[in-house]
């Protein structure tokens, strides 16, 4: 019988950082059974006491934390040790080492990465732009995009665009339906916008499109899910990408995060070559 670990994620901010770190960590263990408890905005000893109280009641508890206040961190470690609960900080040593290298003290201010500065407002603007330029909308000002994504239907254009927007990139995406799908100004691309084509395996595309039609409760038997038609779509899209010398990413076995990371790398290279 597999042991179920009780994982307590403790953060003094939104919990986004510790959540992502735990996601990356658990991916490395195939037989990892767990139940997760998340505690955000943990900034007092009373909150720590409540976490210790809950975790000590369960077997196989484990605490992961991102706390920048040294007093609170030491208190958590001490209380966890009293109750024989393994407790690991995921930023402490990193901040300490950075402090030594930079020869300056860390500010130790919770939520500092979420402050309302210019970067924050630029990210909000990127998200708003991307949402209004989804699926070929508002093509008249598409040249204001940082990144333009093209591809046939169901090649992860929208989720990838939204992910990129959250990273601060104004992203438009255009579905390739026919030869008239691409605006003339994008074909010329006089402003050297980063344009990327997405492709995927036709058989994988059939499954995605069938799932889409099931969700919409529509007939699955159509040209939209016909293997021959899909293969032709994908092949035609590849020809288009090649014609305009646009880089291509095969998303068949890629997550949205991996696809976005590849696009950002292409974007960085394109900007260096301007």
Q: What's this model, at a glance?
A:
The protein is of the alpha/beta class and 274 residues long.
How would you describe this structure to a colleague?
The structure is a single chain. The chain is α/β, with parallel strands linked by helices. The chain has two domains: 4-114, Rossmann fold, CATH 3.40.50.2300; 118-272, Rossmann fold. It has ten helices and eight strands. The strands form two sheets. Strands 2-1-3-4 form a four-stranded parallel beta sheet, with helices on both faces. The radius of gyration is 24 Å and the shape is globular. The N and C termini lie far apart (59 Å).
Properties at a glance:
single chain, about 270 residues, alpha/beta, Rossmann fold, 2 domains, 4-stranded parallel beta sheet, 10 helices, 8 strands, globular
